[in-house]
């Protein structure tokens, strides 16, 4: 499949076309064609932290949770002494 066999505006290779124009202008020692304006981002920026908080609140609502959890102190760890292994007697050769 070649580029020429594809039809439609979504299959136009703008980079290759622009590069061909730049090469043509350089060969003839003309001024380079103006760079196209960058397209404005079409997508809306989403605050992911706000979306996460809303999702958590939505999940908690059916369970009747209000988001205020009881915090308890953890019990202190018991200190244990390390077990020592008996030294093996040396072999005599």
Describe this structure in words.
The protein is mainly α. The protein contains 2 helices and no strands. It has helices at 14-27, 48-60. The longest helix has 14 residues, at 14-27. The radius of gyration is 35 Å and the shape is elongated. The model has no long low-confidence stretch (mean pLDDT 81).
Condensed summary:
It contains two helices and no strands. The protein has helices at about 15-25, 50-60.
Mean pLDDT rating = 81
Strand content: under 5%
Element pattern in H and E? HH
How many DSSP H or I helices?
Answer: 2
Segments where pLDDT lies below 50 for 5+ residues? none
Total number of β-strand segments? 0
* Estimated helix fraction: 25-40%
What structural class is derived from the secondary structure elements?
A: mainly alpha
Radius of gyration: 35 Å
Please give the alpha-carbon distance between the first and last residues: 80 Å
Mind describing the biggest β-sheet?
none
- What best-fitting shape do the alpha-carbon axes yield? elongated
